# Entry
Amino acid sequence: MTVVNPISEAKPISIKEILSRNLQDILFPAQLKLVPQVNEVYELALAFFESQVLSDEEIQRNGAYFAEVNGQPTRHFLMCQGAPLRLAEHSSSRLKSFFKINQFKTGYDTNGLFPYRGKFHPQMIKALINVMGLKPGDTVLDPMMGSGTVLIEATLMGINSIGFDASPFCEFMTRAKIHGLRVPLKAIKAALDNFDSTFEYFCSTIGATETSVSTAKKKLLKKKKISATGKELLPYGFKKESVQNYLLLAFLDAKGYSERSQRKSFKEQFKAILERYYFVAEKIQTVLDGFQEELGEAKPRLGDARKMPLDDRSIDGIIFSPPYSFAIDYLENDAYHLKALGVDIDKLSNGMVGLRGRTQTAKYENYIQDMTRIISECSRVLKPGKLCSIVVGTNNNQLSNILKVRPEEVKGIDEQLIEIAQNHGLNLIRKIERQITGMANTMRLEFIVMLQKNPLT
Ligand SMILES: C[S@@+](CC[C@H](N)C(=O)[O-])C[C@H]1O[C@@H](n2cnc3c(N)ncnc32)[C@H](O)[C@@H]1O
# Structure
């Protein structure tokens, strides 16, 4: 039996020929081998775009979806291979299997540290950076950086980055994760080797008392000895900001875990988490050995996306995901850490997109107003012809309740943002749909909305 070949010229081919070809051979040149776990349509689309816009050398260095180029492993493959993010023995099997089955998508490098709801899949961000045409030396902006995924991926790719977040905890967390790419491993090892002293030290300087990050760090610097043992703590490199921030993030991570789960004592949690932080830093730095000079420069800042201190037309690309606060209250989620860092949560909530307003209707109206200001800012700072990608979810049933219209008549948040963008000189060039597969997400569907700034503005 013969059929018309649907893919190339209208030449009859046998059913056997059709079935013997796999999609990968049809879509990609022979020298490219996909990473395992590419199993969603949006991933295949991004992989295809990467293969079209990047040279073999660029795929080898910065590609997100390829394991090999001409038989040589890519840097992405090397970063992800081996044991996935080392989780504590007592972690749930659900958590362990999540990181195992998503080994090439998330959890690799310092992105996997610290649970933060609404995190991007780093592999997807790496691909977006590529397909938006960003190259080493360019600058990418994330106006609402959260846990810093865009900045971390950009740094690894040799691309400079600027990130803002209204939450001081996000600014701190991003900075610490970036530090993890270069932090002196000896210092983290010293903290582990002297674990009792490390624990005692952090408890006595930060403890459960409310204190600001800068006060905590000042206290850490002043205190050189541990009274109980008389030993000098963290003798190697401890005065380095990178060491302090990385250890402090691990400490706050452990505090958060022990608040949520009673399975281990806080001390045991801290030890397991510090081991993971060491494992992650060592793993990524081994891959980067010899390439540290190629890393981009990241600037995480505390700031308001509605009014960014950036020059007009100064940015080469923007990637962000706005909060969808009808689904996630970031301040409530981070309340413990924010309090531990001495932040006044009530004051902070006035500046948080999605939280302003007393009723759901008021919140929704303020949300649209705030997003209009943010999109207008994005358009202002972007260079003409460059791209802005917004990753956004929508929950039309919820919107239908708020707006009192039938679900089928609701204009989703994605559609509303596209309309606002178009009014600000950002034109839609592509919208990609993606299922949300994260552990604790309320929304199951989101969109990657790719916009291009009018080249003539
Ligand atoms: C969906 S999260 C971003 C997550 C991020 N893409 C990641 O990978 O971790 C949205 C972020 O917007 C931040 N945010 C809310 N209002 C803001 C504002 N006015 N300016 C800057 N950031 C804001 C929140 O603190 C939250 O971290």
Remarks:
- The first strand starts at residue 2 and ends at 4.
- Residues 116, 118-120, 144-147, 149, 164-167, 170, 304-306, 321, 323, 330, 351-353 surround S-adenosylmethionine (CB under 6 Å).
- The mean pLDDT is 86.
